[in-house]
Fold:
Amino acid sequence: MPRHHRDAHRALTAQQRRTRALDLRLQGQTFEQIAQAVGYQSRASAYKAVTRALDDVTRPAAENFRSEQIERSYALIRSMWPAAQAGDAQAANAISRVMAALDKYMGIDKPDPYAGVDQVAGLIERMLDASDAQAGTARR
Structure:
């Protein structure tokens, strides 16, 4: 066997490994299991691979993963909701963590890069108008 194929994990390209990691995650494997199956050194490396795969893979596969995770999250929330409403603090905390994960899957945990742009533009417009008024000129 050629030297570069000694290790089956190394024979795969980085892209193939990331795709395989994502496939395993879709099947419900833990990051530890993914690391062992694909040949990553740690579960953190497997996590990074899945995260990168979401950026790499075609949109349908990534959307399928997100949809699966969102559906699983909603199922968990539904199963814990009665206990949380009855005052179970552990259930309430678990729901809170699942909801935080949902925010990440849906992309709403990141600040809006355009938040405040309209306010800043309005402020600049007023400052320019005031400057023009001071100088005795009108902007068009």
User: Anything to note?
Assistant: The mean pLDDT is 82. The chain has two domains: 1-57, 60-112. The CA atoms of residues 25 and 34 lie 7 Å apart.
